Amino acid sequence: MTPSKEDYLKTIVSLGGATKVVNNKQLVAAMNVSAASVTDMNTKLLKEGLITHTPYRGVQVTEKGLRLANQVIRKHRIWEVFLLEKLGYDWKEVHADADRLEHASSDLLIERLNQFLGEPEFDPHGGRIPAKDGTTESYDYPQLNDLSAGDSFVVKEVEDDPDFLDYITVKGIKLEQKYTLLAKEAYEGSLALQNADGKTFMLSYKAAFKVFVEKADTE
């Protein structure tokens, strides 16, 4: 399979295409390509049985397409762990190089790398690493915006976007750390948060959609 096809499948899955239809506009925006390019690639993937197409709505990956996409995602996330843990990359820096390395890596190399790293379960942003056969455990953490004032939570996953990661790093958001949602502003929707040390800070409404959490007991 070509790197371009792998990227399309991976993007469809990242947009929710394993469980719902993804339209062409979403793919154009996510991949920064033309509508004609998306239509052309959809035709190719459809012929190979990797996606289904619903007229006037969009596409969704088949079981075969999901398995192949998850195998690419596995390579990507294992490389991200390696770059962070062994080469000293920051979590905002790993994505671009992992994107390039995933397409040039044999299955043997990835399995050796996985063993070398101690078979990690998650990437640096909290994303679960799929199994070798392309399967993955189902989990669905709520977005931070779904919580109510007074809720305590642990950050489990964040969106892999460099500018966003810069923003939450400055704010002090870290994986597996506990916070409390103190309040939501009525107009702009910004969130007032408190960390375990009692420090309070504001997080934007937009950023809260990119933070995935697990509710925790309030002490």
UniProtKB/TrEMBL annotation:
Keywords: Activator, Cytoplasm, DNA-binding, Manganese, Repressor, Transcription, Transcription regulation. It holds the Pfam family FeoA. One of its GO terms (molecular function) is DNA binding. Belongs to the DtxR/MntR family. GO terms for cellular component: cytoplasm. InterPro entries: DtxR_MntR_Metal-Reg (IPR050536), Fe-transptr_FeoA-like (IPR007167), Fe_dep_repressor (IPR001367), Fe_dep_repressor_sf (IPR036421), FeoA_core_dom (IPR038157), HTH_DTXR (IPR022687), Iron_dep_repressor (IPR022689), WH-like_DNA-bd_sf (IPR036388). This is Manganese transport regulator. Homodimer. Residues 1-62 form the HTH dtxR-type domain. Gene3D superfamilies: 2.30.30.90, Iron dependent repressor, metal binding and dimerisation domain, Winged helix-like DNA-binding domain superfamily/Winged helix DNA-binding domain. It is found in: Cytoplasm. Its main location: cytoplasm.
